[in-house]
Amino acid sequence: MSASKRKLVVVGNGMAPGRMLEYVLEADPNRFDITIFNAEPRVNYNRLMLSPVLSGEKTYEDILTHDDDWYATHGITLHKSARVETIDREAKTVTSVNGITAEYDDLVIATGSSPIIIPLPGHDLEGVLTYRDLDDVERMIEASNTKQHAVVIGGGLLGLEAAAGLKMQGLDVSVIHLAPTLMERQLDAAAGHLLEKAFVDRDIKVFTGSNTKEITGSDGAVTGVLLDDGTQLPADIVCMAVGIRPAVDLAKAVGLETERGIVVSDDMRTSDPTIFALGECVQHRGQCYGLVAPLYEMAKTIADNLLEGESVYEGSVTATKLKVTGVDLYSAGDFAEAENREEIVLRDAQAGIYKRLVLEEDRIVGAVLYGETSDGPWFFDMLKKGTDISEMRETLIFGQSFQGGAPLDPMAAVAALPDDAEICGCNGVCKSTITNAITSKGLTDLDDVRAHTKASSSCGTCTGLVEQLMAITLGDSYDPNAVKPMCGCTDLSHDDVRRLIKAKGIKTIPDVMQELEWTTSNGCAKCRPALNYYLVADWPDEYADDYQSRFINERAHANIQKDGTYSVVPRMWGGMTSSSELRAIADVVDKFDIPAVKVTGGQRIDLLGIEKDDLPAVWADLGDAGFVSGQAYAKGLRTVKTCVGTNWCRFGTQDSTGLGIRIEKFMWGSWTPAKVKMAVSGCPRNCAEATCKDVGIICTEAGFEIHFAGAAGLDIKGTEVLGQVTTEDAALEHVVALTQMYREQGHYLERIYKWAKRIGLDEIRRQIMDDDVARKRYFDAFVFSQKFAQVDPWAERVSGADKHEFNPMNVLQLEAAE
Amino acid sequence: MNVMAGNWVAIGQLNDIPRLGSRRVIIGDLKLAIFRTSDDNIFALEDRCPHKNGPLSQGIIHDGCVTCPLHNWVIALDTGQAQGADEGQVQTFPMRVDGETLMLDVATLPALTGA
Ligand code: SRM
Ligand SMILES: Cc1cc2nc3c(=O)[nH]c(=O)nc-3n(C[C@H](O)[C@H](O)[C@H](O)COP(=O)(O)OP(=O)(O)OC[C@H]3O[C@@H](n4cnc5c(N)ncnc54)[C@H](O)[C@@H]3O)c2cc1C
Ligand code: SF4
Ligand code: FES
């Protein structure tokens, strides 16, 4: 079938093409056969976030935007460390330095830009770095472990972020800047000085208006920097951040029209209509861009045109924020002096605040905010819309919340933003998009909002705004920093409660409420089921399950339906069934005339619409045919999906069906913080969809690859690899141990992928894969608790347990009065 | 008008209902939910949530309220009023406990008074 697909080749795997592919796949996942060449030896990450990585505030994992799973899931071929060297426009092929050739129908060149290196004497010494990609960051971090002095050449956005990062890594840092003030491209002199002061306060030396004469060194490595005025600075590393140059060499070499960048028309096509250019390498209407927002707009345009759309890109106005923790700086538009321009300036030396608006015919054309930037988006919004501000001219500079006399409170300001006001500049997400997502999708934490709207997922500087929006939309229920209490009955978090239950050896719900000072007499529908689970999990042999604290589905052992009837899902181990099982189900359906029979998404059969009073009788018949409860209602082991594996499949590498059944038979009945769904696939084709489950196994010739922390419900997330094992026994042991670790640490209703995010994948791998003692302990603990858990709840009730649940206390026939 | 005012009938024993539990009582087409709180107070409500008719008898009971199993509305057992932001009310019926016996005042049942 892929023969019929168009071949899309992308040169460069940066942020712009990353976003473009998301748009393309969203619109039509099957249109293209996609191949990407990346000079970097890795997947795709958020370049904007390199500075937090350099400063140690984030890790590489934190800033990944597309990991290997993503490419695999979308069937995209990614060639890493494969710099494209030539394009044959006749044959429509591209070829990389390491000799990989790919044919294309559509080609996108997204080579980004390269840092400029001034050919100073000594520029080629060891220890002279640039600041563009992760390798640069890794070199700088490494240097900071062994070295002492760093000199940054260039006091622009990048140079300053590099300087701040290197400082946080403990180096002694100097910044050398040619212009008289820092960031002169984005800031006017006044703001530049405030910025300089902020850096000096962090004990970073700043030399403005100075030129570097030469980089000095001895036996091949840098030792210092010499300035024009004779100043000598010691240096073990020198970071050149003097600007970027669109990477046009490839395009130029193959005869595409280039000037500063690769020249494109409004539809983003180069001089060769089958070739698009995208990102920082582009020159559009004479403009080259160095910020992501415009590149994302280009990405959208190209995606649409690749799918026969007719979008045009019309250029962008950009705003910049400096991402140095503790320095608030916002700048947008153009503030060169000119006679038809006036300015409004606000200075508050005390508070270190400086604001300047540049006006042209009652419209904002430029804005610089220093020290207090919350009004940035508001000004930028009016700047882009060309709003006439004559009405509020007098008070304009005091910001939005001031208009209409509202108190100067940032919340009020955000609340007052118009629905179409842009909150996230990088991703062009407006206020209403965010608030709607929060309400319609019931989002309650920042990560969810990022996942669903992309807001604050790039440079992160709008995070504060997004959090304020969440606070406004969700009311008091949202407090970013507060450890969330379990519920209204206590101030303790789930963690505290779990810890205290163990520490104090508390063994009943009333005791928990007494000891931990619950503010209600019997808790609520939120905390009671949670407490009940924690006690069941912590004291499997001693704790008597509190029936009244279970959600109805777990009391009735069936799923309540909207009309108050119930559904019944018997286990079909590993999705296998037989004629006699199916016959038994058919008989039950007829006997109790059950209105609906459905094949579930979990490889078994759901009988829906059963009257509660009939449940025990239904179970009795199912039980006679050998069925047990499928626990489709339980916060516990749900399904273990399998594929046919070596039993039948020509690709099967292991007995995936057998292993799945073995796992399900071993683990059924266990209670877990939230439902647990597993799957075993017989080969990497993965027909059992193991890579979106809570726990999944992919069989290979070599053995078993264990996956975990996938999600395919409210959120969608590919699994992470836990590790490789070679035998079925080992696979079972590791899966069981993993589940037990989750049982002991998970918050009630927290799926495995959320727990894993909280605990950290590496910590989990360490305990389950590397620490044999820990793994064994978890395994034994699980086996012990199964002694008490593995009782078929249906059989119990058929033999009379909880009778009161299934029949009314009384059925009266009263005669109406005459 | 209603001829059988204060007409109390026995509908069950206290211990038929677990503490913090509920049982259903069916009278003609009327479904009732009888609740027992942790301090042995007994309440009778129509077994129909004001939101979307969820069976309140299947909910979790706490602090004089029941949380509906379908969408978690919280209903006060004494007044039948929906709590918090939600608005709505379920009809409640007089109950009394004679020793161990649960007595319901059927005089007030709509099924009987209503025409
Ligand atoms: C029957 C079934 C749909 C079907 O007809 O196929 C189903 C039905 C329900 N799902 Fe599901 N889910 C079913 C497979 C799935 C799957 C697919 C799978 O399991 O492979 C998913 C996505 C994977 C996952 O689990 O995330 C799925 C994600 C959900 C979610 C979202 C969970 C999440 O954390 O994202 C809910 C809501 C929840 O659990 O809070 C949910 C809840 C429900 C409930 C239990 C709603 C409720 O609380 O009453 C539905 C009960 C209907 C009933 O009485 O059977 N169901 N549900 C499937 C039963 C599987 C089984 O055999 O046990
Ligand atoms: C430290 C830092 C901080 C930044 N902060 C911000 C910010 O706060 N806000 C903002 O808007 N922008 C910021 N930027 C700019 C932003 O990161 C870039 O505008 C954006 O990443 C450009 O995306 P791109 O896809 O065009 O190019 P890139 O992301 O640079 O990707 C180009 C990729 O193509 C590869 N490549 C090049 N040539 C070839 C070839 N011939 N064959 C194969 N692969 C090739 C390169 O190795 C590179 O991986 C920052 C940049 C840096 C370095
Ligand atoms: S997706 Fe699941 S929860 Fe939603 S309606 Fe279908 S079965 Fe119910
Ligand atoms: S029916 Fe009771 S909450 Fe919806």
Description:
The complex is a heterodimer of chains A (818) and B (115). By secondary structure, chain A is an alpha/beta fold. In chain A, the strands form 12 sheets. A 5-stranded parallel beta sheet of chain A has the order 5-2-1-9-21, with no helix packed on it. Chain A has a 5-stranded parallel beta sheet with strand order 11-18-12-13-14. The mean pLDDT of chain A is 91. In chain B, the strands form 3 sheets. Chain B has a 4-stranded antiparallel beta sheet with strand order 2-3-4-8, with no helix packed on it. The radius of gyration of chain B is 14 Å and the shape is globular. Helix content of chain B is 3%, strand content 39%. The longest helix of chain B has 4 residues, at 110-113. The chains are: A alpha/beta (818), B mainly beta (115). The interface between A and B is medium-sized, with 29 and 39 residues. The complex binds siroheme, flavin-adenine dinucleotide, iron/sulfur cluster (SF4) and FE2/S2 (inorganic) cluster. Residues 11-17, 37-40, 47-48, 50-51, 83-84, 110-112, 131-132, 158, 161, 247, 250, 279-280, 290-293, 295, 323, 426, 459 of chain A line the site of flavin-adenine dinucleotide (FAD).
